[in-house]
TrEMBL record:
PROSITE patterns: SUBTILASE, SUBTILASE_ASP, SUBTILASE_HIS, SUBTILASE_SER. InterPro entries: Peptidase_S8/S53_dom, Peptidase_S8/S53_dom_sf, Peptidase_S8_Asp-AS, Peptidase_S8_His-AS, Peptidase_S8_Ser-AS, Peptidase_S8_subtilisin-like, Peptidase_S8_subtilisin-rel, T7SS_pept_S8A_mycosin. This is Peptidase S8/S53 domain-containing protein. It is a single-pass membrane protein.
Length: 428
């Protein structure tokens, strides 16, 4: 199983998570010359993945499925022929090769996996599905694979990334998924992010798969939601980068997603965690179209479920993204309102004197009543005794002797509420 590579050139922007392979199946045929070495097809996996069980997005579907929202996947392309993505993927654009190629194909399955986590439709016999199956995917292809022949992450041309972000913005994307990261702060990418934000587009980016807390771009740019990864136990996934740029976390270890040519594969890394947040953003933008991108981002953060690091954690951000809460709850605009100060009324001295008088009177009345009752009882007892004595002519009465109880005899077992104590050994 191939894992994300930690080594990374300081100026490179790379895809943040590799694919885990499975037994090969018949290969898809991409456009001629588009793929140097296309990944083989993978088998269909029927089991329901842990990430879908954890987030339980079906509850949110009663309120929103993401209908009407275009989510751009700026990645390696998206296989538009996958059964769970059929009819959901636009033509898009390829910025990796010159010409006018579409973005609706994939050589390595990375973009297909990301797009499927966002919008894959539920189908019979398959447990996997996307977060927002009503959303539409705009594929923007900026690379042809996530690993070079050496096994190192493939650097992405910052200019191609910037053109992809601008293209997505100009083609009605309301959410842009950027499952890539790097240490380089490129002005061309920074300007493209600012361009998208100025047009009310929400950008969601991977926090990166490296140790340490160094800023990772584009997640570290203002207004971009940075996403870390957690495993099935809720702990930060191995390699998920920490830092101020981590706003939320999502499943990112052993996550099942679609693969090119109709199958599925397992993935690790913040790349596969990012589309869970992007898909949730699509649910919110569909259910609450009046909210701006900034308001949607604040809503996702405010409704996140608590994570191990607590709120504002450098490892977990605000917590685990929660699609149901994000769609259904309305966070307060400025946090909880402070409690009003308690104003005590001025003391009423006359009322206090009256209460004290009634208190004393009540005690005296009770004492008097008690004394009268006791006197009556004593008189009644005395009268009964005199009458009985006269009848017996004052002869003493003989009381019956009580029955003899053998010493040391135990009570019957059934009266014990708990098992009876053990029998003591006879003393010498």
């Amino acid at each position: 199983m191939r894992r994300p590579t930690a080594a990374l050139a300081a100026t490179a922007i790379v895809l943040a998570a590799p694919m885990v392979g499975a037994p090969p199946a018949p290969a898809a045929v991409p456009p001629a010359g588009a793929c140097r070495d296309p990944e083989p097809a993978r088998p269909v996996v029927a089991d329901q993945p842990w990430a879908q069980q954890l987030l339980d997005v079906r509850g949110a579907w009663r309120h929103s499925t993401g209908t009407g929202v275009v989510v751009a996947v700026v990645d390696s392309g998206v296989d538009g022929d996958h059964p769970q993505l059929a009819g959901k993927v636009l033509r898009g654009r390829d910025f990796f090769f010159a010409g006018n190629l579409p973005g609706a194909f994939d050589c390595v399955s990375h973009g297909t996996a990301v797009g499927s986590v966002i919008a894959a439709a539920p189908v019979d016999g398959v447990g996997f599905h996307g977060v927002a199956p009503g959303a539409t995917i705009l594929p923007v292809r900026i690379t042809d694979r996530e690993l070079a022949d050496s096994g190192d992450p493939t650097p992405i041309d910052p200019a191609a990334l910037a053109r992809g972000i601008r293209y997505a913005t100009d083609h009605r994307a309301k959410v842009i998924n950027l499952s890539l990261s790097g240490y380089g702060d490129f002005p061309v990418v920074r300007d493209a992010v600012a361009y998208a934000r100025s047009r009310d587009v929400l950008l969601v980016a991977a926090a990166g798969n490296r140790q340490g807390t160094r800023a990772s771009y584009p997640a570290a740019y203002d207004g971009v939601l940075g996403v870390g990864a957690v495993d099935i136990a809720g702990a930060r996934a191995s390699g998920s980068q920490a830092g101020d740029h981590v706003d939320l976390v999502a499943p990112g270890a052993g996550v099942l997603a679609a693969a090119r040519v109709g199958g599925h594969a397992y993935w690790d890394g913040t790349s596969i965690a990012t589309p869970f947040v992007a898909g949730t953003a699509a649910l919110v933008r569909s259910a609450h179209p009046d909210l701006s991108a900034e308001q949607v981002a604040r809503r996702l953060i405010a409704t996140a479920s608590p994570a191990r690091g607590g709120r504002k954690s450098g490892e977990y951000g605000a917590g685990l993204v929660d699609p149901y809460r994000a769609v259904t709850e309305t966070p307060p605009a400025q946090g909880p309102a402070p409690m009003a100060a308690v104003a005590l009324p001025p003391p009423d001295h006359q009322a206090a004197r009256d209460a004290a008088w009634w208190h004393r009177t009540g005690h005296l009345a009770k004492a008097g009543l008690g004394g009268a009752v006791a006197a009556i009882l004593v008189a009644a007892a005395l009268a009964w005794s005199v009458l009985r004595g006269r009848r017996r002519r004052w002869a003493p009465a003989r009381a019956a002797s009580p029955p003899t109880v053998p010493v040391g005899e135990n009570l019957p077992e059934e009266i014990f509420l708990f098992p009876p104590p053990p029998v003591e050994a006879p003393r010498p």
